[in-house]
Amino acid sequence: MDREERIKNACMKIVECINAMSFVNLDDQRVHSLVMMREIARGVVENKDRKVTKSDVTRALHSSIEKMASTCRDIVYKLSKMSYKGLDDQRIQSLLRVKEIAAKHAKVASVESDTWIKESLAGEEMQPSSVDVLVGGAEIMVVEESLVVETELRNEDGHNVVQKRPVTRAKLTGKKDMQIEEVQRKMPEDEPPEVEAQLINENGKNQLQEILSQAPLLQSLIWPPDDCITLDWIWSLISTIKQFSQNHPPSEFQLVMPISVVDKLVDNASSILSKEPNCVKIDCHGVDSRVVVVGDIHGQFHDLLHLLENAGFPSENQFYVFNGNYVDRGAWGLEVFLLLLAWKVLMPHRVYLLRGNHESKECTLAYGFEKEVKTKFGDQGEYVYNKFLDCFKELPLASVIAGSVYTTHGGLFRSTRIAYSRRSRRKRTQRLELGSLEELSAVKRSLIDVPYEGPNMILTDVLWSDPSQRQGICKNRARGRGLWWGPDCTEAFLKMSKLKLIIRSHEGPDVRTGQHLFGDMLCGYSLDHEGELGKLYTLFSAPDYPQFGRKIFTNEGAYAVLQSPNFENPSFHSFKAVEKPKADPFVDVDDYDKIASSKREDQIATSDEEDEIDIGERDLTSTHAQSSTAAISSLQKSSPVVMASGVDFEALGISNPPSWSVLLPNDLGGTQLVQVPQAPEVEGLPLPPNLEEPHKSAYEYLFKLVAGLKHMLQTREIESKGQKRKQDD
């Protein structure tokens, strides 16, 4: 062991010895000297060269006081919540004695008087404006009877914040009661901190130990006094939310997230968002730049954390684009949105938050977010809910990444130009045309609910539209708003906007199951359109969706990674759901299932109608039509839609039939969804003539799929051997 290590070990022993000491009967000067010694020794252990000041000693003393006081308050609070049912008088008296002891030791005051604290911090950066409270301040409440009160607490920077704390009826201690022996870490010998193991409940367990083993009450978050969020503040936010979700009911959320902090965070974020255009341009052409695109999250906070940990947190070289739907259907929509707002405030040019269709009053009233906010903030819930609605209106609608990738929540949108087509010599009908990015930039987005008609229909389309396999653009009858657009429209939009890729969200496994038109979203993403000019993907980031419902899909979530210089070639990364704390839904599960089932049936039924698109609605400009001809024919050759239609897998008890899209590894370390081509020959066909439906159609479908997979593997093997020969030559 070298000399430096020996010195550090010796200093560590000094720290441990002082921490284990009782400060009973020591005067102020001795306590001050001991703490000074401990802080100097700790500085040696932690390689800190800075000189220990009187202010450091003061803060260390206050920290020790607060730790002891906080533990005692926790004991009192938990004993106050404990049921005495089934206990005899002796056991009740023992519990009350423990409560009395904890209450006495919660009666902690400042190390010295108000004047002493002011003098201690004089000349330092952190000087309190007034000394009237504890927890780093001057006085604390004495715990007597269970009650929730407001206390004003001073943070480390000398600023006062109001915090609601479940303590007891309180009275301020006088300065005469401020004795330094209260700083002690150990209980006096004549007042043992534990009660004899007599407190056995009906199940034979020690009730007191169960109470004391519970997680301590969390400290309230404090807004930075200089209004500047730091990375450490975000880590504190994440840690607080994670711990709170494990052990505390939603109704106590405001104890750790005061409304004053929510106000500041939402106001700061809204100010930034309001200055962004409808379609944000993200310039990320650095050599090491990469962009992570995220789909629907729907209140699944713990899965969001898992995604961030896997993909990497936002940084100078790592951008994030979120495609909306942060809230509803999950238990932690509030926490999800608050965390993302915090990242936005910290890194406004690295984190971009787009709006989803659920960031509206209509959806949040129906799918749980409104109830969630009012449960977590009680009487102030209406105010907080309206605060979030105002923030939703400021969210941008789309993004263009590196001039080549378009992302949004729903998809494409109509033009505001009025065009007509003649269906007969006498009758003219209004025709839908594809909108441009210039028209999107001009839309008024500050509406909390999307319109059903009028000049701002683009807002409705961009949040609610879905892709289709049929050509053209038409009204989305399944959803009752928004549009359906076909492969030709995707090609036309890419050409018109000079783009190469579209990543949208909005559809999860609950919508895609049973359609047989696109991927089932069980891997978190789907390749929906592929043409000469580019591709269209749907991305969904909420695994095991929805969190609440009679039918919960075992789907994976996914995120896309775009890397410089080839941003148009995404790498998709699927991930499974993480374990979550138990939570109650904020929406009636039966009502949700009825709505979801109805929408799914409508979409499947409507997609099978031959008269889905009016002739007048199919027309695009001739330029758009010409640019997409090659892509349409290519898609029709490789699409498995024809084979999938007519197969009643539900009648065979198959809810998730095998798909004609398979996940394969790509060159970037992720996976990509690849369409299985049709094989020139299919083994096993034709089938015996006496085979009945739906078995006949299902068998034909599966034989063709197996043949396609086999043909695909053989082709890849031949290509691989050919490349190897070229390398050898």
Structural notes for this entry:
The protein is an alpha/beta fold. The protein contains 23 helices and 20 strands. Strand 7 (398-401) and strand 8 form a beta hairpin. Helix 9 runs parallel beside helix 14. The protein is elongated. Mean pLDDT is 76; it is low at 109-121, 123-199 and 597-645.
In short:
With 729 residues, the protein is α/β, with parallel strands linked by helices. It contains 23 helices and 20 strands.
Protein traits:
alpha/beta, 6-stranded mixed β-sheet, 23 helices, 729 residues, single chain, 40% helix, 5-stranded mixed β-sheet
- CA(first)-CA(last) distance: 59 Å
The proportion of strand residues reads 5-15%
What is the overall silhouette?
elongated
- Strand element count: 20
